[in-house]
Amino acid sequence: MKNTEKTNIIMREDHYYNNMDIILLPKNIFDIEGYSPENIDNTSLIDEYIRQAMADVPNGTAIELFINYGFTRALVSTLNVVFEKNLDCGIHIYNDDLYGYMEFGRLKKHNKVNKYTDNTFAASFQLVNRKWKKALEASVQPVFTDGQVDVSHMFDADYMNQTAYNVLKDYAGKKIYLYITGLKQALIACVNAARQLDIQMTLKHYNPDDESYGHTQNLYLG
How far apart (Å, rounded) are the C-alpha atoms in residues 206 and 215? Predict the structure, then answer.
């Protein structure tokens, strides 16, 4: 790792990777030893792989995280390590139209207000409206509608963060389920809202093999 003021970390190798201090994941996620399509829900293995990749990043320092293609499970694992290490994290998301990364602000600080004495889940949300997903019940309301994540909005961090905050603010200090239905910007915005509002989120990932959201992954708020 280079001795720089900020550590540049990219999720997976791409044509910008030479400028990075750390590449978290191989191009083919299943090149990770012990990981395969058959155990795609084994996120504890991904957690440990990323924790090892970021082991030399000092706690409490600043990083820039470059998010490129694929695999939301690994992104959540990365965010958990970022929060475990109390890192000041800037977000950059790849824009296919511009063939480059766009800044998406810095992750919000955790506002700790609740001890989570109530173990019940107050609500369920999906990231983006996906009515065509048969596995989703009608009661699972979207944080973002399709119109809110068009090309004019999806890279506007202030807009995305505020939209997520407005939808989730009534659940401050509570537990919710969040169904992962696409768009990393929407996920980052929901994570920011959860940290500001002290919402404990359990994420539900889609498995195309059985067309279900059976796998859960907890978000560590820090």
Answer: 7
